[in-house]
Structures are given as C-alpha cells and as structure tokens.
Design goal:
Radius of gyration of chain A: 21 Å
Shape of chain B: globular
Helix content of chain A: over 70%
Strand content of chain A: under 5%
Order of helices and strands of chain B: HHHHHHHHHHHHH
Largest sheet of chain B: none
Distance between the termini of chain A: 32 Å
Radius of gyration of chain B: 23 Å
Oligomer: heterodimer
Distance between the termini of chain B: 34 Å
Shape of chain A: globular
Largest interface: A-B, 162 and 162 residues
Number of strands of chain A: 0
Structural class of chain B: mainly alpha
Number of helices of chain A: 11
Order of helices and strands of chain A: HHHHHHHHHHH
Largest sheet of chain A: none
Structural class of chain A: mainly alpha
Chain lengths: 222, 273
C-alpha cells in the first residue's frame, strides 16, 4: 500500500540529488573560468583524497544510522543541506512528538520529511539574511553576556530532546544509557563525542539486540 | 560529514590549523590585495550562480514537502498536526542557525562572501569548510590556512575541494538509499510486533550516545550539564501542562521554549559558577 509513496520518494530523492551535485559544480567551474586559471588537477585530487579519507566512512555510517529515524526522504534531504545532528534530527523528532507519531513508522517518515524540509528552508532564509546584512547581528551574538547561552545550545537541545523520549521508553533506554554513561566515564565525554560516528551504530545495534532478547523471552512466557 | 560542526576533532583541527583570528585578517588582506580574486569571489556573477544553487535546494525541499503532505493526508494525519510540526520545525531552526551566521562571517574573510554563503547553506559545516581550505592550501605546499602565500590558484582549488570533499553522503544516497529502503521495508513488513519496538530501540540508542556526553561532562562544562537538565525539565513540564490544558500553541513551541530555557540558564548561571 505504501509502495507508491516509497517509489516516489526514492525517485525524487535520487533525481534531485543528482541535479544537486551538478548544480554544486557550477560555482567552482565558474570561478575557474572567470579567474582564467588552469588548476593543477593532481593537487586538487590529492586534497580531495585527503578529505575523502576522513569523510567517506563517516558519511556512510551516519547515513545508515540516521535512516531508521529520518526515513529515506529525510536522509535524502538532510544530506544535501547538512547540520543533521544539531538541526534536522531534532526538528524531525520534536515534530514527531507533536504529531504523536513514532519514528520508523510511515507517519513518522511523513512528519520527518516535512520537518527536515522546513528546517532546511529556515536555515537557508536565515543565512541569506545573514549574508546580505553581513555582520549586523554578530556583535550581539558574541557579547560575553550571551556567549554561555550559545556555547550550550547542544546540551540544551539534547536535554529537551532525549529525556522525554527516554522516560516514554524507560525499559528500552536502560541499556543504551548505561553503556553510553560507562563509555563516558571510561574514555571521557570528549572522546565519546569525537568518535560518535563510530560508537553510535554499535550502541544502536546493541540496543536493538537487547530489546529483541527481552521481546523473545516475553513471548515465550506467554 | 555534516556533523563536522559538532565534531570536536574537527573543531580542534580548525582551531589549531586555522590559528587565531589574526590568520583570517591576513587572508582578508590577501583577498583584497589580489584584485582578480576579489573581483571574482565577491562579484555579482558568483552571487547569482550561488543563489541559483541555494534556490534549487529550497525548491527541492518544497517538492519533498508536497509529496509528504499528500501522503500524510492519505495516512489520515490531520492537517493541523502537520502544520504544528512544520511550525515547530521553522521556529526551532532559528536558534541553531545563529551560530552558523557567525561562522559565515568568519568564513567570509577567508574565501569571500558568496562561496561561504553557498557552502554553509548546502551541506553546511564551518569546521569542514575551514579544513577543506586548509588541506587545499597544504596540497600546494603551504603551511595551511594561515599562510600568507595564498595565490589565486589556491582560492580556486579550495573552492573545488570544499564543493566535492563532502559529497559522499549524497553519492551514497544516489547509489544505495533505494536498495536500503526497499530491504528495510521488507524486513519491517515481515518483522511483526517487534518492528515498532526495534525502531524505538534504535532511536533511544542514538539519543543515548548523543546526549550522555553532555550530561556526563559536568567536570569540564558544568554549564552544559545545567542547560541539559533545565531544558529537559522544561520540556517535560510543558508536555505535562499542554496535555492537561490542551493549549495547542504550547505544544507547538515546546521544543524552542525548552531550548531557550536551557540556554538562558547557562547565561544566568555563568557569572555564579
């Protein structure tokens, strides 16, 4: 029943991603042409290779990790506009809470796409204003008075996002919270954050595995 | 990739390699000294080219929204609920976008206004962009971002590296997302009652890894732990009150309000701690 939607999402996702890649090559092509410079392909490729070595594994692991929560449509969109962890994911998840739908469900995917898209548009609009009126806001944002607030956006965001969800799913949350806390104590919170892309899929898999064992045991008891 | 902003390793790289703001000032001088670089990188044509890309990304988001909205109605989600979710998303996104505006100002001094605007609008991440410029400069034998030997060629090379060093997520989607989605949906349809539990388990797993470092970081950042707890408490409180009173607007703005409450606590507590 949901096949048509899935096909449409993947078709739109793939086509619009290919077009996005083509569009993204316009500015470098233009500056190369306008400057009349012959760039050294070897140097550029070497630099690209260096960047790729860091980002290919991170990109692949993250896309697979985000998929169960954002759905295919959400991942297509958020990969193009970026800022997934600090904006797209929280926007989608708080949207799902408001609409009363579960992540991973069909309804969840619809809300995820709506919220990720809106968040992308909002950021694009703010950056456009920021670019035009360059600098007018910055002195205010960087005053020592407000600085602690902006330094702590991520903790505040994660607190508002995660705790209500943990409380709603207390039994499921025990294992991943315990494992994450132990890792934080053993390796230090900074190390955990640094290696988040790699730790995240492991904890997610462990969380599902434990949930599965508990689920099986319950069924057997029945 | 897109998380480079939140990735401390990259932040460190950016700080140590990019050096203090003095480096940016030097580069700005170079940018304004080299007439041709300035003409192209701050020129109207580049503004239009970059604007076209940003416009495309916005249109793409609208197309996805239209598709999802129709599907939502098909699934029986009320328009009111969808509108509430979208409003929440728009209002919430303003606050985390503000630090990106600051990054825009910094990056503008390195590579000009329009490329910075484009890069932060599309797969935006300031730390990544600085790293890409830095690596591009090094591949030309310079010491990095702060080096004064930036030639026009390096600006062009940096633009290429910035644009294509981070496209791997998009490439992954083009080649593999369709298959991943098909397989996952097949498993989902066969999985029965467990699939709902599995989705929630995956999600709490992700949230735990993302949130616990902030909670556990009280030794190095007690303000962070405080903001975390306040935002959580306010979010729970609003959830509870909106359930009892049925005030729609409260639900709609619960997330941005909690976020601001957390940040405000940090601002108020900073002089005390």
């Amino acid at each position: 029943m949901n096949n048509n939607f899935d096909i449409s999402v993947n078709r739109l996702g793939r086509t619009s991603s290919i077009v996005a890649l083509a569009m993204m090559s316009m500015p470098p092509i233009y500056v190369t042409w306008a400057m009349g410079i012959h760039i050294d392909t070897g140097n550029v490729l070497a630099a690209l290779f260096n960047v790729a070595a860091v980002f290919i594994p991170i990109c692949v692991i993250e896309n697979i990790s985000y998929y169960p929560i954002l759905g295919a449509g959400g991942v297509y969109l958020s990969c193009i506009t970026g800022n997934i962890m600090n904006m797209k994911l929280p926007a989608a998840v708080s949207g799902m809470t408001i609409a009363g739908v579960e992540p991973g469900s069909q309804e969840g995917e619809v809300i995820s796409i709506l919220c990720v898209a809106m968040s992308s548009i909002a950021t694009a609009a703010i950056l456009f204003i920021g670019m035009l009126g360059i600098g007018f806001l910055v002195p205010y944002l960087q005053t020592p008075l407000l600085k602690p607030g902006f330094d702590n956006i991520m903790p505040a965001l994660m607190g508002a996002l995660s705790i209500p969800f943990f409380l709603k799913n207390i039994k499921l949350s025990v294992t991943p919270i315990a494992v994450s806390l132990i890792l934080c104590l053993a390796l230090g919170p900074t190390t955990v954050q640094r290696n988040q892309s790699y730790i995240m899929p492991c904890v997610m898999l462990l969380s599902v595995a434990v949930a599965y064992v508990v689920h099986k045991q319950k069924e057997e008891k029945k | 990739m897109n998380e480079a902003r939140g990735n401390p390793r990259l932040k460190e790289t950016q700080l140590t390699r990019a050096g203090p703001s003095a480096a940016f000032i030097h580069i700005r001088e170079v940018l304004s000294v080299s007439e041709s670089v300035n003409r192209v990188f701050n020129g109207t044509t580049l503004y239009l080219v970059c604007g076209l890309v940003v416009l495309y990304v916005t249109v793409q988001a609208l197309l996805f929204m239209r598709l999802a909205w129709r599907r939502g109605i098909e699934l029986g989600i009320t328009e009111k609920k969808m509108r509430q979710a979208v409003t929440n998303s728009a209002v919430f996104s303003i606050i985390p976008s503000l630090p990106i505006v600051i990054m825009l100002m910094v990056l503008t001094q390195v590579i000009g206004r329009y490329i910075s605007w484009l890069r932060l609008s599309v797969i935006g991440s300031a730390a990544y962009e600085n790293m890409a410029i830095d690596i591009a400069a090094k591949s030309y034998g310079l010491t990095g971002l702060g080096d004064l030997g930036f030639s026009p060629e390096i600006y062009v090379a940096a633009t290429w590296v910035m644009s294509f060093g981070i496209v791997w997520g998009i490439l992954f989607n083009i080649f593999f997302m369709g298959t991943l989605d098909k397989r996952a949906k097949k498993i989902q349809s066969r999985g029965g009652g467990f699939m709902k539990i599995a989705s929630a388990a995956l999600f709490v797993g992700m949230l735990a890894v993302m949130s616990m470092p902030h909670l556990a970081n009280f030794i190095r950042n007690d303000l962070g732990t405080l903001s975390f707890c306040t935002a959580a408490a306010v979010s729970l409180l609003i959830g509870d009150v909106s359930k009892r009173t049925n005030i729609g607007a409260l639900k709609e703005f619960a997330f941005p309000i909690s976020l601001i409450a957390g940040m405000l606590t940090a601002i108020l507590a900073a002089p005390l701690l």
